[in-house]
Amino acid sequence: NANPTEAVIVPPPSGTIEPLPLFRDVPVSERQNLFIRKLQICCHTLDFTDTMKSVREKEIKRQALMELVEFIQSGSSKINEICQEEMIKMVSVNIFRCLPPAFHENTGQDATDPEEEEPCLEPAWPHLQLVYELLLRYVVSSDTDTKVAKRYIDHSFVLKLLDLFDSEDPRE
Length: 172
What we know:
Oligomer: single chain
Number of helices: 7
């Protein structure tokens, strides 16, 4: 394992997203680095309002998210503190966003029966669901050091997470 103080974190590049190798295809010694590179790919926010836009990038990000979830779930390699910090940053970049105003707030009309309203569904849900899954797997993993986790999942993080309960999307 590399010394955590020696790791260099590179911000996600702007522009295109390129696929990375699978974890199983790299030596164990390279997996922490690959984990960080996959997290960096997942820090790219993509426009889900247009289904034809960035199709390739969306698929690469989806694959990377699925692999990250599997990697954490497998417990095959304990992730170091830098990886944990970067993972919580990636989770934050993806889930903490401006929620659209509730439908009845937009119209200026009296609130209608909430049962009759169509919920406002989040177009990025296929990726958000995987990000939430990654966070859940990390939190419940027996490999997670709670002292380290508390540094990154702090009071501010939890408050922002609670704010997401205001989402109109029932899946969230």
